[in-house]
Amino acid sequence: MNPAPVLSVVVPALDEGDRIGAAVSQILAAMDAAGLAVEVVVVDDGSTDATCDEAAAAGARALRLERNVGKGAAVRAGVLAAVGERIAFLDADLAYPPDQLVALVAALDAGADVVVGSRHHPDSLDQAGTSPTRAVGNRVFSAFARIALGIDQDDPQCGFKAFRREAARVLFRESRVDGFAFDAEVLFLASKLGYRVVEVPVRLVATTGSTVRLGHDALGMAVDLLRVRARGRSL
Fold it and tell me: Rounded to whole angstroms, how far apart are CA atoms 228 and 207?
């Protein structure tokens, strides 16, 4: 009998058939090397390719959403289906190499309820050569999120976070944003509900195939943040 997973790793995926199998294998290998029992939960966000089949073949628990509804919705579905005592999520491109999941688990074990990777942490390392335009865009959005929602985190959009199971289930059951601004909403809810949030440094590596379009998605994310703030008045 396999041991119960110490960690569930949720991977939202849209048309990632060419690389999701390798991503799942890398996560499993990294956690095996760290001695952590893990389950990988891949949530296929309405892909038109073989993402779901490839994920399952590589050893993941594969969930499929019938239509593309957004990264936030995919992560929410994966988190609520996860069985680990700690739940993390990262992207299928593995821009944050999975060996860093160990640091997230350590921070949870040290008393955090939510652990947030931060590209802006002084000890973080950007090996990806992030373009100045994207870096500035991320900084602007982060500043807007902090002002609009009153959150303290410097990099709310970093796609590398982990939660204690109880906190994860409460936060994602309460969340409503289906798109890319879901991270900021979750941190806003964590602040409202009094959870302890800790930021940790990350190492970012070069990848291809980002699904974020700065102009179009930034506008949608800004609108979502304002909706979150309006809803927050009733919490």
Answer: 31
| Alpha-carbon span 206 to 160, nearest angstrom | 15
Model pLDDT for residues 169-209, shown as the tens digit of each residue: 999 999 999 998 999 999 999 999 999 999 999 999 988 76
Q: Closest Cα partner for 97 from 159, 140, 13?
A: 159
Identify any residues that bridge with 188 across adjacent strands, giving them in sequence order: none
Token digits of residue 14: 């849209």
Q: Which two tokens stand for residue 202?
A: 């990350």
Cβ-based neighbours of 1, under 8 Å, separated by 6 or more = none
pTM of the model: 0.93
